Structures are given as structure tokens and as C-alpha cells.
Amino acid sequence: MDLVDRWMELAGSQTRHIGEELAARYGEDHRRYHTREHLTAVLDLVDELAGHAADADAVRLAAWFHDAVYDPERADNEERSARLAERMLTDTDLTPERVAEVSRLIVLTETHAPEDGDRNGQVLCDADLAILGSDPERYAAYAAAVREEYAFVPDEFFKPGRADVLAGLLELPALFHTAPARERFEAVARRNIETELMLLRA
Questions:
Q1: Using the 8-state DSSP alphabet, how is residue 93 labeled?
Q2: Are 53 and 123 in contact (CB under 8 A)?
């Protein structure tokens, strides 16, 4: 099933134009990691973790929009993606409350720090960060793709900035919030992050 068909299965054939625009956005030339492949991986894991969510379809909608606006030279991509979702979903049959929940979830992917009782937020954040717990080869490809997206930043600035982000992740009590994701990804993710940190600081 291609991405647009997958969107219509979730949101209905009358919203095909939204799915087409989102698929096009994730295919933008400047993207190296935040691509259709990343979107598909997040959607697949949301499906796996759907039983933990309070509203799995709201999480799926948020996953579709979470990187819809992606400009590595800006720091407000999540906020802009949330605003885009609000604009585009207002013209559908979704209730205002559900649209607001989708928007909230998108913004949450900036910090990946859902509250203990935020089951929807936990599922989305775990799905978005699952790449951290992948095998070493895939993780290395992810790190290289992120570096390509920030090719405009010289090493002397990129390396300490990236190291700060990774060190901040390691300081979190847990990277993953649902039991299945924590069991599957947590230990591997921490090893991967520690390895990348070591390379950045070498």
C-alpha cells in the first residue's frame, strides 16, 4: 500500500488531497532522514503500539503531520507542522477536540517528554525515537543522514551541538515510555547514543 492509500484508509478518500500533499512534503529534496521512509517507520510502530494509545487514530494523524514542515535552518518546525495540521484538518469531519489533540501531539515531538498519563503522547514519541534503538548499521545511517540535513553547519558548530542533544537524551530517566518500546529499544538506544557521542568527541 502506498502512502496516499494509507492516508485514505485512515482519513477517508475525500481527504486524498491532504495525503498527496503530505507525501509530497516528506519527499522534498532537502530531506535526508525526515523522509517518507521515516514517516512509514513511525506509522508502522504506531500501529504496533496502538493498544497502548487512548486514541490510536489521533496518534496516526499526528504521525502523518509531525515532520510535515521541516526546515533544518529553523527551530519552530513542530509548531509550524501543528499549525499546518490545524489548517488542513479543519476542513475534514474531525471534531475540533480531535484536531486539537493532533496538534498537541505534534508539538510534543519537539521535547519527546510526555507526561506519565499521556498514553497518546507516549506512543507517538516512542515511535518517533525508535530509530535510536535500531541496529548499529541503521543507526549510523541515521546519524549520517542527520548530518547531511545540517550540511550548512560547519563541524566546529555541529559536533558540540549534536553532542549536547545526545547528552540531554542520556540524562532522561527513560527514552521510551511504553513497555514494549522500552524493552525493545531502551538499552540498544543508549549504547548507540554513547557510541555516537564518543565519535563526536574524538
A1: S
A2: yes
In whole angstroms, what separates CA 51 from the centre of its chain? 19
Q: Answer for the pair 81, 22: CB distance below 8 angstroms, yes or no.
A: no
In single-letter form, the type of residue at position 120 comes to N
Q: Which residues, including other chains, have CB under 8 Å from residue 171's CB and lie 6 or more apart? A: none
Q: Is 105 in a helix, a strand, or coil?
A: helix
Q: Average the pLDDT over 92-117 and give the result.
A: 96
Answer for the pair 176, 129: CB distance below 8 angstroms, yes or no: yes
Radius of gyration of the chain measured on its C-alpha atoms: 17
99 near 65, Cβ under 8 Å? no
| Tens-place pLDDT, residues 111-132 | 999 999 999 999 999 999 999 9
Which residues, including other chains, have CB under 8 Å from residue 73's CB and lie 6 or more apart? 152
Tell me the pTM. 0.96
**Residue linked to cell 527551530:** 75
